[in-house]
C-alpha cells in the first residue's frame, strides 16, 4: 500500500514561481511539500536567464575590445571560451541545487524529488526516479507550477539527430566551429550572437518573415541589420524542410532550396507545457489544453467546503515564460490562498503535525498583500527583454496587437542616434524608442526600447504602461541629458499632442 503524507499545501514544480509560492507559504507557518523532478530553481538559474547572460556579457566584452582601435588606442582581442564555460559553471553551482534546497528548507518547505501528478482533488502522487510512488494529501491548497519544455518542430529528420536545445548550448565547454540556429526569437538570437563573437560561424533560420516575429517589426529590422554586420548569416521566411546528421555534422535544407551545414544545430523555437502529465482531468480540465485556465487570482479550481483549492503559476498558465511574471503570480496566488484559508493559520491534522503554529496574518509575509485587499493578476504591462546587442525591451501591446483589438492607435518613434548625442556604447547608438498610445484614453498601451541599455530604458516605460500614466504627464517629464532614456521624450514629441 502506498504511503500517504498529509500536509497543508503541495506545490508541484519548484521553478521561480513554485519556489516563491512554497517559500511564502512556509514562512506563513504552513506545512508545505514541494515536488521537483529536476533542479530546485527551475530553468532560469541553471540553463536560462543567469548562465545565458554570463555568455552574453562575455561576448559583449569581446565586442567592446574590438571597438577600441580608432577610439581609445590599440587592442588585440583573442577569443577564448574556456573562461566563459567556467564562469557558467560557477554561476550554476555546477548544476547543483543543494543551496536552493537548503534555502527552501529554511523557509519551512520539505522538498520531494520526483514527478508529481494529480490523482484526486486533494491528492498528488509523486513518482521518484526509481519508479517508487508516494502520495501527498493537501488539506488547504495545491499549486501547479511546472515549467515548459523546448518545442521540437516536426522537421523531417530532426528528431533523430543530436541537436542542441538551450541546455546543451549553455553547458558547452567550447564554442563550436559552426552553429545553425533554428528560430529567430530571443533565445536563438542571444546564444547565436554570443557564440558568433567567439568565432563561431552562425546561421539563423526563422520561418516567419522577420526576426523576433512577436515584437515590433522595427525591432526585427534592426537586429537583421546589426547581426548581419556582426557576421551572422540570417534567413527569414525560409523554414527548414529537412535535417540530416553525419560524421561531418548537420546538413539542413531550406524551403527556398538553400543547403546549410554546421557542426551543431540549436533548436530554439519556443517552449510549451503539457498539462496532460499533471493529471488535470480530475479537475474536469481538458488535458489537451495548451495552458491551465486560471482566473485573476491564479485559481484553477476555487476552494470548496472540505476540499482544497487548486492554483497555478508560471509557464503552466500560458501567460509568458518569464521569471519575473512567475514570481508576481506567486505573490497573487499566495495572497489568495492565505485569504481563502482565513488568515493563513496552519491547522487541522496537517498543521498539528508540526506543533502549534502562531497565527499568520496575511500581509506579514514579504510580498503578500493583506487578505482584505488581495491583489489580482494583470497582464497589460508585462515587460520582456531580448538580451542581444542591441537589447530589445518591450512592454504591453505592439502596434499590430493594439489595432487588432480595435483600439484608436497613434504611435511615436524616435531614433537613439539622433536623440542621445554624444553617447557611444557597444554597437554605437543603433536603436529606437517606439510608443503605442490609445488616443481615446490618453495613455500608452505599449512601448519598445531598442538599443544600448534597452532593457534598462524599459523600466520607465513599464511604469508608464502599468500605471496608465496620462500622456500629458509624460510629456511634462524632464529627461536627463545625455541619457538613453531621454529618447522617450523624443518619441513622445513624435507621438504628437
From TrEMBL:
Q: Which InterPro entries match?
A: FAD/NAD-bd_sf, FAD/NAD-binding_dom, FAD/NAD-linked_Rdtase_dimer_sf, Pyr_nuc-diS_OxRdtase, Pyr_nucl-diS_OxRdtase_dimer
Q: Which UniProt keywords apply?
A: FAD, Flavoprotein
Q: Which cofactor does it need?
A: FAD
Keyword Flavoprotein attributed: yes
All residue ranges annotated as the FAD/NAD(P)-binding domain in the record: 8-330
Q: Does the keyword Flavoprotein apply?
A: yes
Domain (Pyridine nucleotide-disulphide oxidoreductase dimerisation) ranges: 382-488
Q: Which family does it belong to?
A: Belongs to the class-I pyridine nucleotide-disulfide oxidoreductase family.
Q: What is this protein called?
A: NAD(P)/FAD-dependent oxidoreductase
Amino acid at each position: 500500500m502506498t504511503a500517504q503524507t498529509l500536509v497543508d499545501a503541495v506545490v508541484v514544480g519548484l521553478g521561480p514561481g513554485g519556489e516563491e509560492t512554497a517559500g511564502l507559504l512556509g514562512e506563513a507557518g504552513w506545512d508545505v511539500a514541494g515536488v521537483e523532478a529536476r533542479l530546485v530553481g527551475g530553468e532560469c538559474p541553471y540553463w536560462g536567464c543567469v548562465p545565458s547572460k554570463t555568455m552574453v556579457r562575455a561576448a559583449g566584452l569581446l565586442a567592446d575590445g574590438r571597438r577600441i582601435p580608432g577610439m581609445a588606442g590599440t587592442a588585440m582581442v583573442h577569443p577564448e571560451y574556456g573562461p566563459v564555460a567556467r564562469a557558467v559553471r560557477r554561476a550554476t553551482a555546477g548544476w547543483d541545487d543543494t543551496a536552493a534546497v537548503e534555502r527552501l528548507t529554511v523557509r519551512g518547505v520539505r522538498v520531494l524529488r520526483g514527478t508529481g501528478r494529480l490523482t484526486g482533488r486533494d491528492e498528488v502522487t509523486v513518482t521518484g526516479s526509481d519508479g517508487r510512488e508516494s502520495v501527498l494529501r493537501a488539506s488547504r491548497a495545491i499549486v501547479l507550477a511546472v515549467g515548459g519544455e523546448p518545442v521540437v518542430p516536426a522537421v523531417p529528420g530532426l528528431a533523430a539527430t543530436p541537436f542542441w536545445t538551450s541546455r546543451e548550448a549553455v553547458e558547452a565547454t567550447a564554442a563550436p566551429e559552426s552553429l545553425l540556429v533554428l528560430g529567430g526569437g530571443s533565445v536563438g538570437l542571444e546564444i547565436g550572437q554570443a557564440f558568433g563573437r567567439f568565432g563561431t560561424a552562425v546561421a539563423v533560420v526563422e520561418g516567419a518573415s522577420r526576426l523576433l516575429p512577436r515584437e515590433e517589426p522595427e525591432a526585427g529590422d534592426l537586429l537583421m541589420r546589426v547581426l548581419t554586420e556582426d557576421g551572422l548569416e540570417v534567413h527569414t521566411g525560409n523554414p527548414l524542410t529537412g535535417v540530416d546528421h553525419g560524421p561531418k555534422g548537420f546538413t539542413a535544407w531550406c524551403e527556398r532550396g538553400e543547403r546549410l551545414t554546421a557542426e551543431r544545430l540549436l533548436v530554439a523555437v519556443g517552449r510549451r507545457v503539457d498539462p496532460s502529465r499533471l493529471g488535470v482531468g480530475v479537475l474536469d480540465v481538458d488535458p489537451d489544453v495548451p495552458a491551465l485556465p486560471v482566473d485573476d487570482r491564479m485559481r484553477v479550481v476555487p476552494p470548496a467546503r472540505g476540499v482544497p483549492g487548486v492554483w497555478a503559476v508560471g509557464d503552466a498558465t500560458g501567460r509568458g515564460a518569464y521569471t519575473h511574471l512567475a514570481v508576481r503570480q506567486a505573490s497573487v496566488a499566495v495572497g489568495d490562498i492565505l485569504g481563502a484559508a482565513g488568515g493563513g493559520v496552519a491547522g487541522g491534522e496537517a498543521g498539528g503535525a508540526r506543533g502549534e503554529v502562531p497565527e499568520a496574518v496575511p500581509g506579514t509575509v514579504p510580498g503578500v498583500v493583506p487578505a482584505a485587499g488581495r491583489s489580482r493578476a494583470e497582464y497589460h504591462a508585462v515587460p520582456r527583454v531580448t538580451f542581444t546587442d542591441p537589447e530589445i525591451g518591450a512592454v504591453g501591446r505592439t502596434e499590430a496587437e493594439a489595432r487588432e483589438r480595435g483600439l484608436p492607435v497613434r504611435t511615436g518613434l524616435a531614433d537613439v542616434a539622433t536623440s542621445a548625442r554624444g553617447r557611444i556604447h557597444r554597437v554605437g547608438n543603433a536603436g529606437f524608442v517606439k510608443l503605442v498610445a490609445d488616443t481615446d484614453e490618453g495613455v500608452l498601451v505599449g512601448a519598445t526600447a531598442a538599443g544600448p541599455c534597452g532593457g534598462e530604458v524599459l523600466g520607465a516605460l513599464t511604469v508608464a504602461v502599468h500605471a496608465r500614466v496620462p500622456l500629458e504627464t509624460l510629456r511634462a517629464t524632464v529627461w536627463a541629458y545625455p541619457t538613453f532614456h531621454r529618447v522617450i521624450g523624443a518619441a513622445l514629441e513624435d507621438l504628437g499632442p
